[in-house]
Amino acid sequence: MDTYKNTMRRKMRSRQAQSIAELPMGLWFLLIGFFIPLLGLATFGYKIAQVYWATKDAAYVASVTSTYDPSTGPPACVGMKVAADNVFANDMAGFNATGAIGTHTLQILQKTVGSTGAPVIVTPPLAKGSLNVTTYIYFARYVTVSNIPPFLGSGWKYAWFPAIAGLNAPLTVQLSYDDYVENPNGLTI
After folding, report:
1. Residue 176 has pLDDT above 90, yes or no
2. Burial of 146 per CB tally in 10 Å (0-12, 13-18, 19+)
3. Residue 148 near residue 170, CB atoms below 8 Å
4. DSSP string covering 43-55, please?
5. What residues pair up with 1 in beta bridges, in sequence order?
6. pLDDT tens for residues 127-160?
């Protein structure tokens, strides 16, 4: 004889069995649809931070280098650009897992003291009489343009699935960092 209690147990069992049958599909959806893209975004954050720190280190080294042109400095001196490029390459080699490839340039900025306007890019080495440290402040700006490869690689492009930067194509990031030139006299010929 079927009682109310037995009927309720059978209904509860059937609902639990249904949720157990759907659990693997739900877990696959969470894994593939949520955790893997989240891991990809986290790796982009790590790689962009790495390029940023390498850019910052290169700008700092350029700003403390004694001269822009190595031929005008002491015998062991390297120029601002060469020193900055070496530091950037060493920092990026320390994190060789990123595979970030790109270009990097060094610019010298001249900003009027007390001005809120944009700084002017000057081309060093400056002429001997054109350096004016009472009117201008000089900055070294190191600019990098890096192509950061995606987490899952870029080999899975299909005709029906376009190339999306960061998902299955490299993400291009441009970063720059300015630092005060500690020895502006080294910018002259």
Report:
1. yes
2. buried
3. yes
4. HHHHHHHHHHHHH
5. none
6. 777 888 888 899 999 999 988 888 776 666 666 6
